[in-house]
Design a protein that fits this description.
The protein is built from five helices and no strands. By secondary structure, it is mainly alpha-helical. It folds into two domains: 37 residues; 49 residues. It is flat, with a radius of gyration of 18 Å.
Length: 87
Amino acid sequence: MGNALNTVVRILFTPELLTGLVLYAISAVLFILVLTRVKLSVAGPAVSVSYLFAVLFGYFLLKEPISVRHLFGLGFIVCGVLLVLKR
């Protein structure tokens, strides 16, 4: 039992996890600040654009392939966001 607890504690304090948690907290605070200025019906769908950035990040920085299925999915996301945001 002590070995498992030691492993969990060691994982909890890895730089990668701590960095991810800090960035997540920052993004949550920024999203709340955005909501004080923009309607949720606009800010919510705009968050979906983060999927586009994630795929582009993977492609350009991590050299991950982009399949046709990914491209169609991203296209649908972008079209959906544009439809919701257009007034």
